[in-house]
Amino acid sequence: MSNYFEDLAHSVIAGQQDRVKQLTQQALDAGTDPVEIINQGLISGMNVVGARFKVGQMFVPEVLMSARAMNGGMELVKPLLVGQELPSAGKVVLGTVKGDLHDIGKNLVGMMLESAGFTVVNLGVDAGPQKFLQAIKEHKPGVIGMSALLTTTMLSMKDTIEVLKEEGLRNKVKVIVGGAPISQDFADEIGADGFAPDAASATDLCKKLLA
Amino acid sequence: MPAKSNYVANATPLFSILSPAQCEEIFLAAEEVLERTGVTVHDEEARDILKKAGCWLDGIRVRIPSAVVNQALNSVPKRVTLCNSRTGSRDVLLEGNNAYFGTGSDTPFTIDPYTGRRRRSTKQSVGWACKVIDALPNLDFVMSLGIVQDVPLLISDRHQFEAQVLNTSKPIVTTAHDIYGFADIIEMCEIIAGGEEELRRNPFMTLYAEPISPLQHAWEAASKLVLAARKGLPVVYTPCVMAGGTVPATMAGVLTNGLAESLSGLVINQATREGSPFIMGGVFTIMDMSSTIFSYGSPEFNLLMSALADMAHYLKLPMFGTAGCSDACVVDEQAGIEAALSIAMTALSGPNLNHDVGYIEYGSTSSLEYLTINNDVIGMARRLVRGIKVNDETLALDLIDKVGPGGHFLAEDHTMKYFKTETYYPELINRQRYDAWKENGSKTLFQRANEKVKDIIENYQPEPLPQDVQKRIRAIVERAEQKVH
Ligand code: B12
């Protein structure tokens, strides 16, 4: 079976969705444990993708193709996971803060997190403290990530953290921040748990915070 | 004199990326995008204006018939003039292939010329930048080179404008947080110009706004286009698109999508008031698919800039270009290479109002040393564009014969007459011989630039605004500050 898993992982890395689906179906037909397929084939392929992206050996569209291929396999496995939770690296709520419309960076962070096995709830742009608060109550994420590209809107990050404190939720969720004007100093100043300068390191940061 | 017929001369170098047929193809494709896919407009007033102009509305989605685009292209002025704020002198003629250079605006960070460290930009750093721009002869207009962060941030745009207009008399391309910020800035400008109509006749500023790719006009942007038209003031509208990210990865796809955004902005502006001055922008580039930056130095960025300039000339629209900027995180060899390429290509293709000179770190940081070095690069590029004049006087056959084999030209009247106009002498670029260079401290280009920057900051005096005008501007800044408290 080990060769088979290798083949599956390689197809994920190569971003070949049809091949991934075909191999996954074959394994299921042969009675392989769905959790094994996920962990040893699909996710193990994505782990390689993540590492290669980090060192510049793979590019964003290639990573997204791999993620798409992985999801193709996941769709087939999911219905068979009766009673078991789909393995997830954790849940992250992401949003671009109030007054800010820069969203491509935040979306990239979301896509990269999903590729690394996180469940992502994307609040879109113009997300104020109340929107984050509601999302925390509804989705119970391990991490919330706020994105701001404007010095005028980065202040809203602090407001959100204050609201979380008032609601007694601050200790229940990790808060991370990012975007062009954000720095580690700023993150410390407003009492966030972390800052990451790009999507690859945002993924590492979430893994670290939820470990 | 013989009769010399069928003689064709290049008065300047010829340089183009797109042929007229290719320009037409891309323009028609952009019109098709506007008719078929349309854009979203997140401002009710702008949507009403578009509806009255003959556009098709479907909620916030607006599809624009080609005839409406053509009408806007007919009504928009083919030229915009920007003036000196102190004298009203009409210095910057945005038309044809005239290429002017200036800085970029709101970088969160700047390199401190005294400590060499990257720090957040302040009112003082913006004031310094404007002084330096004012003093450099090859810089024609000003953008702030930093976002002011040591004042209440929600009204920092008023402070930023004050810091600019006190320190330079060159025309200003100004950003603002929203239309309320713009309203205050326009009021300041009207005071300086001596009235609303005076400002309209001799504008020394232009407003600035951006659509959101792909194909969206946010409330901020649409309302600024409407405000500019109502006020009869020029507005720069500039899509910042990333190949493979917010627009297709193919260069033709980038141009089509970006142009569709510009043209729909033009329609909002012209449908509000026909004949309003409008400057088409475009920072068209790639997203680096490894680091995910919006690149300010890639070859594609230069290629797209020149191609868009061809488009602007084809459509007879004044254009806002981008040059003299870099992805390098410090002012190093990479920064120099990227500036030289972009400034040369920009000068050769002739977009009109070219900004972002002095940006490093993909638009996040500004450097006054880089700006000062680029002042020389712009001078060099302008020399290239002046080309080679060929006539009896410049061929100099009589002189060549007079000096003859083995002589020299150093002491000839002809040399005296032409050596300065035919040659460009940069200020900071080294042409010293080794020993002289060593004797002068073995300084690098960066060190020489740093000294010049400090000299300007410490010794240069920009033309002041009259005392009472300064006071009235201050009052507007204070009024805004009161409102946030
Ligand atoms: C493209 C762009 C735009 C586009 C945005 C389109 C979109 N859909 O996002 C448009 C044209 C709409 C735009 C508009 C404006 N912009 Co703009 N924009 C840029 C530009 C050139 C690139 C940004 C970008 O998309 N980069 C590529 C993406 C992939 O990278 P990224 O956003 O940095 O995201 C990465 C990391 O930061 C990180 N990250 C991001 N978010 C998060 C969140 C978390 C939790 C974590 C961990 C990490 C993380 O990971 C991401 C992926 O690797 C920057 C320049 C710059 N240096 O950033 C200016 C810039 C950000 N913009 C600026 C300005 C001033 C504006 C405007 C105000 C201009 C105006 N006056 O109209 C408007 C504001 C509109 C608004 N209300 O938001 C300034 C900001 C100055 C400031 N500090 O306030 C900049 C720095 C340019 C400049 N030097 O003047 N802009």
How does this model look, in words?
The complex is a heterodimer of chains A (211) and B (485). Chain A contains 9 helices and 5 strands; from the N terminus they run ααααβαβαβαβαβα. A 5-stranded parallel sheet of chain A has the order 2-1-3-4-5, sandwiched between helices. The longest helix of chain A is centred in the N-terminal third of the chain and has 21 residues. With 211 residues, chain A is α/β, with parallel strands linked by helices. Chain A is elongated. Chain A folds into 2 domains: 80 residues, Methionine synthase domain (Methyltransferase, Methionine Synthase (B12-binding Domains), Chain A, domain 1); 120 residues, Rossmann fold (3-Layer(aba) Sandwich). Helix content of chain A is 55%, strand content 11%. With 485 residues, chain B is α/β, with parallel strands linked by helices. Chain B folds into 2 domains: 312 residues, Alpha-Beta Barrel (TIM Barrel), CATH 3.20.20; 31 residues, no CATH class. In chain B, strand 18 and strand 19 form a beta hairpin. In chain B, helix 1 packs across helix 9, helix 3 crosses helix 9 and helix 10 packs parallel to helix 11. The N and C termini of chain B lie far apart (79 Å). The model of chain B has no long low-confidence stretch (mean pLDDT 96). The interface between A and B is medium-sized, with 16 and 22 residues. The complex binds cobalamin (B12). Chain B: Keywords: Methyltransferase, Transferase.
